[in-house]
Design brief:
- 2 copies of one chain form a homodimer.
- Chain A contains 6 helices and 15 strands.
- By secondary structure, chain A is an alpha+beta fold.
- The first copy, chain A, has one domain: HIT-like (HIT family, subunit A, 2-Layer Sandwich), CATH 3.30.428.
- In chain A, strands 3-4-7-9-8-13-14-12-11-10 form a 10-stranded antiparallel beta sheet, with helices on both faces. In chain A, strands 1-2-15 form a 3-stranded mixed beta sheet. In chain A, strands 5-6 form a two-stranded antiparallel sheet.
- In chain A, a hairpin with a 6-residue loop joins β1 and β2.
- In chain A, α1 crosses α4.
- The termini of chain A are far apart.
């Protein structure tokens, strides 16, 4: 029989649909992406490839040889999005017209080019390379949060065409917005209420329960735990959570970068191996800037594979229908060996 | 410059991204579906085609010749979903395990086969045929809401592969759930608060403002207005709203069926013509059963074309990036002539 499950951090529901249930190994073939190995190291027309720096807007930040800029000596490179959803030039001015409310398009929209190589997917990197990307995320997060007009910073990665990207070259994006969206506010309120009622962080409690239940853990490592949440919205949804309570990704310490990179790399490698390079979205969930010093929130990473489509029911009700049991997908992924990093 | 806009009914934000802006006519080709005219009237393997009744579970309801059942004398036919997300057999029992909360999979999941003909899309039907489908929606809604275990009834249609359906034969679905999801609760709370503060329904106010602004109206008809909302999440998002305040779709009167069918048919025909048969989701938003007698909510139809993909940013923040101006898409669709119904 199917089961409705509630996500304790959002109060949203999912239907775990056993009628449509597929075994974990049945998810891979339909949506399999192109093997990174089949891609070239360099593509002449790719604006993110080493040597093609002139094809992008001027860089904002990079790990590179000192004193250089926009030349091919970089390892990780940050540029403005060529078609930014938001721009940093103006003050965020409120717009009112009758009952309609708006804000002009203030914000930041940056692209993090994760590697000079066209085919070096994060799943197949060395941990030391992923660590550099995480370090750059953190540096840009810090830079954006120092702007008092910024309310929320969203770091995310779209991998593969069905996940919303058309550029193959490994990259992530960072968007800073001047408002706090309703869904994020709702998560904060749930966490706040849980803290009011229980005197503890709902994510800390959840992690403790997942570790006690031991049914949905994929990986336990120093400092971080990866698991498939009880109310997973999609097959193989994976959360990577710091064991230590930290409200904001901004709180990440230099010496923790390696630990998060190591778990992230392992999970992406296992997904790559177990599901044949599936399309996915990766989202770094962190508190809004104004809530960074509260005890309520707990930053974490959510990986959302795009193995199934969301349709009218999800759009209309907010209830996802998940055709896999997180207990089964977690067990499957636990056993998948990590492929070795690409040469 | 881009603009952030807030949906006054959900408090959610969208970014109307002018940097990525496409003109309304640029949206059609990429996602164009198969022309219904190119499909056969009958497909031997289609379980929804006339004469293939034996390929489906036994019918629950139909507009058909009296005294018959599961034979080819029907016009609109309702069957249980062959792989139901939820089943009506058991009591909705709450499940607790530590802090995890669930409910066993009680509910209903039905399929409405809108026409005996494989290629007779709603966009190309006569109004009288659409009216029959709306009447059947209403009859099933009434049947489900008489079950005291049902909390919310979601009527929706997935049209086309990227909208989540693999069956070409025109059909809709109805799901009844034993819980009220967080997003629906949030909408009710916004409406309630607006009513507390202003003494009026937020949807009535919104409709009045849209009619005053006259910038986003697609179609004004007797009893119903179709418009592209100020904070449209996706290009060509269309809402069809009753002019009269009615909380629940259950309140629809027999004599209103034709009016809603007429507007719905016109909008689908215009989208079909203007965007070359785009994939879309259609959602009938109605109040939860327990709120049907409150003055807060206002049932309406939302049409959500799948012309663009939602990616990590949308998933992580709940903020949609819309690359079209609703003022422009509404103007475009207003001018599109309705194709004549198919013969």
């Amino acid at each position: 029989m199917s089961e409705l499950r509630q996500d304790v951090t959002t109060r949203e529901w999912v239907i775990i649909s056993t009628e449509r249930a597929r075994r974990p190994h049945e998810f891979s073939p339909a949506q399999a992406g192109q093997e990174p190995a089949a891609l070239p190291e360099y593509s002449e027309t790719c604006p993110f490839c080493l040597g093609n720096e002139a094809l992008t807007p001027g860089e904002l930040f990079a790990l590179r040889e000192e004193g250089k800029r926009d030349d091919p000596s970089w390892q990780v490179r940050v540029i403005p999005n060529k078609f930014p959803a938001l721009r940093g030039e103006s003050e965020p001015t409120r717009l009112h017209e009758g009952m309609f409310r708006g804000v002009n398009g203030f914000g930041y929209h940056e692209v993090v080019i994760e590697t000079p190589l066209h085919n070096r997917e994060m799943a197949l990197m060395e941990v030391s390379e992923v660590k550099k990307v995480v370090g750059v995320f953190h540096a840009r997060y810090e830079a954006m949060r120092s702007d008092p007009r910024v309310k929320l910073i969203v770091i995310f990665k779209n991998h593969g065409r069905t996940a919303g990207t058309s550029l193959e070259h490994p990259h992530s994006q960072i968007v800073a917005v001047p408002i706090i969206p309703g869904g994020v506010r709702a998560r904060i309120e749930v966490a706040q209420r849980h803290h009011d009622d229980n005197g503890e962080c709902v994510y800390c409690s959840l992690l403790e329960e997942e570790l006690r239940a031991r049914k949905r853990i994929v990986l336990e490592a120093e400092g971080f735990v990866a698991f498939h949440p009880f109310a997973s919205r999609v097959p193989f949804e994976t959360w990577i959570m710091p064991r230590t309570h930290n409200t904001s990704f901004g709180d990440l310490q230099k010496n923790e970068c390696r630990a998060v990179a190591s778990v992230l790399k392992s999970i992406l490698a296992k997904l790559h191996q177990g599901l044949q390079n599936p399309d996915f979205n990766l989202i770094l969930q962190s508190a809004p800037v104004e809530d960074e010093d509260t005890p309520y929130y707990h930053w974490h990473i959510q990986i959302f594979p795009r193995l199934t489509l969301q349709a009218g029911f999800e759009l209309g009700s907010g209830i996802y229908i998940n055709s896999a049991l997180p207990e089964e997908t977690a067990a499957f992924l636990r056993e998948i060996p990590e492929p070795a990093p690409a040469k």
